[in-house]
Amino acid sequence: MNRLITRFLSLALLVTCSAVQAQQNFDAVEIRILPVRDNIFMLVGAGGNITVQTGAEGVLIIDTQYEQLSDKILAAIRTLSDKPLRYIINTHHHGDHIGGNVPLRAAGFTPVGGNVGGDIGDAGEGARILAHENVLLHMASDDNVSTDAWPTMTYFTEKRDIYFNGEGVRVLHQPNAHTDGDSIIYFRKSDVITTGDAYITSFYPFIDMSSGGTINGFIDAANAIIDLIIPEYGQDGGTLVIPGHGRLSDIGDVINWREMLTIVRDRILDMKERGMSLEEVLAEQPTRDYDPRWAGQGIFSTENFVTAVYMTLDQ
Amino acid sequence: MGRIVCRISLLFLISISSFSVLAEKNLSGVWVGNYSEDFPDRLPGPELGDYGGLPLNDAVRLRAQSWSASLIALPEYQCRVHPSDYASSFANIRIWEERDPISEALIAIRIQHFAWQTRRTIWMDGREHPPEYAPHTSMGFSTGEWNGHQLKIKTTHLKEGWLRRNGVTRSDQATVTEYFIRHGDILTWTVIIDDPIYLEEPFIRNRDYIYSIDDQVGSYPCDPVVEMVRAPGYIPHHLPGTNTDMLIYSQRHDIPLEAAMGGPETMYPEYVERIREMPKPSELAE
Asked: What does the pLDDT look like over B122-149, one tens digit per residue?
């Protein structure tokens, strides 16, 4: 039963993503720039939000939206910096976050020398792509993803640090949240966190069970983000959070998100422990107070969310 | 003849411009809350399970019934400020203007509130509201305009907040329209909340303030601390159907539970007649 549902949801994801991409009129998409803090910017277009960090050493971006938007994304970046694109960090492997990897990587470069030339065969030919190892594994198992889009530097531990443009950039693995390869990225000097789809403000989370996503991983990721945040007086401002989708946030939005995830998890756990089947839980509408705010379509629907919570409670 | 026409025109222009300036009231100064209305709801705070008079839908009623007051003991909740659409309920405010130093054009009106020392800006220079992906804050993004002697304010980009501080949520999709109306030393502050997520109808709240030359707005420090040891990630809440706290208000005042649970009909005077036909908790207990 579990496998059937997982396969069904995987298929649904594939169909939904393909349909979304097919329906997108990329010509009409405008890449808008939101200054976040100092040299950090949020780019909004179609697909996941992009983070841009600029400085004397070059440009670092997090996620790349869709391939069809790459020229516009690059043009937007060029309004912020004329320095070379040096790093691309992928928060996870979904198409709306890695679609532009190939052209954007090609537009950048990596200086060769030290131990870098020994690490990657194509050093100097493009920007480096950093992601958790599981992102590479997912991309490598997908025939539709070009090898040129694959991460060129991966990590399999809890974190990977780089120091770029005068600040420490900490890449933290969030196991089994949206997927099993999620990273959140913390800019220590700018005091900005980029979360990928481990935190969004638009809809219910999509728990990608076929890629190792779980509800408890999602909640753990929310708690990890909150642990990193130091708010200003009054709980407004302080550490800023760039979500995978939706609006720029701070602690207030993230604790509301965590509250919703935790309360829904607790309700469904209680129902499951009382012996209720998935069908009975769905009929009970355990998210009916949150649906008006968070329910979306397809992979973001109430049914999909409740099903995934129910199926992954024990993981 | 030409001179006379010029003088008349000039006089007319002066009178028009003076009128337009006079229509803008000066709101600057310290204003003290007048608590003669809704006092129990404002300073002592609402009782648990009192949602009466709020145009709630079923979704937010369930959220309110799931809410545990223990939530605000969590450090990250302790210093959350009252949102701008709730702050009018109590405490002194200070209002001042920011004007262009050359033209004296009004750029913004600022309001500082005693509770949590919040500061908010009402932009008066005609600027646009930010895009949807810009941050939401407790104060929101406000723009204002003078309608005669009324200051009309539109606020968007609010964080999720509360309609009443006993668990009744106001969503982050709400927009707020406010009116500041000064009659001499009395200021009436009207707040109209449109929440497409949680309200069946707009909710309207009026508060009166009195101008004071003797009062000030005090400071309001707030340091979040760990008040008790709890499991990491623990969120206090009631599972559906288990919250007995929500009965407190109804039972204490012998008000039918249905009336205490709110809804658009409970806002209107004629609802009193319906309440009289409902069995009281004391009658149900017999």
From this structure: 999 999 999 999 999 999 999 999 999 9
Contact B197 A250 (CB under 8 A): no
Paired residues of A241 in beta bridges? A193, A249
On whether the CB atoms of residues A229 and A241 are closer than 8 A, the answer is yes
Question: Does A248 contact B at CB distance below 8 Å?
Answer: yes
Residue B226 contacts A where some CB pair is shorter than 8 Å: no
Quote the number of domains for chain A: 1
Superfamily of domain B29-43+71-212: Calycin beta-barrel core domain (2.40.128.20)
The answer to whether A285 contacts chain B (CB < 8 Å) is: no
Task: Choose from A48-52, B22-26, B217-221 the range with maximum mean pLDDT.
Answer: A48-52
Cβ B181 vs Cβ B88: under 8 Å: no
CA of B237: which chain A residue's CA is closest? Answer: A263
Chain B residues 106-135 within an 8 A CB cutoff of chain A:
116-118, 131-135
What amino acid occupies position B259?
A: A
CATH of the domain at A61: 3.60.15.10
At B96 the pLDDT is 98
User: Which pTM was predicted?
Assistant: 0.92
Q: Position of tokens 């009026």?
A: B206
**Residue of B121, B160, B195 best to disrupt the A interface, most CBs of A under 10 A:** B160
